[in-house]
Amino acid sequence: METLKETIAPLLDKALLINLFDEEETLHVIDWMQIEDEHDELVDKMEGMSDEEAEAYLNSNESALMQICDYFMDDECLDRVENGEWLPFGLLGLTYKPSSYAEMGNGGMLLFDISEDEENPAIILYRDGNEEVLAESLQELVINEVEAQ
Fold first, then answer.
1. What is the model's pTM?
2. H or E segment to which residue 127 belongs
3. Which end of the chain is more exposed for a tag (fewer CB within 10 A), N or C?
4. Residue 96 above 90 pLDDT?
């Protein structure tokens, strides 16, 4: 997993466009492992709270993980992420510096398919409940940095 984190590191916090099917789409690269850690810290703060208190706390402290799961994934995708088959790394169709990942009109997400090869995983496009292998590796994708507006 550390290798994948190193692979995406140069793309984090950059304004990016990706060419998908001869169309350019904004790409926001995320560090899923960091997002999971931040969510775990949030959950740890709820220890000892009643169900009502925890629900109220989460309503005002929604994590990036919760937003991504709610707006980019369905149950099938979430199961594959939780089972360690897929690793999310890119969100499509957002502004360059999103204040939230809660976006109904998003363009889907990109995931590493680590179920067979963790070192050089294929890239999955997941949107609207459909999965498609985009490339056999990240290096095959056409990703360009642009000046954020």
1. 0.91
2. strand 122-127
3. C
4. no
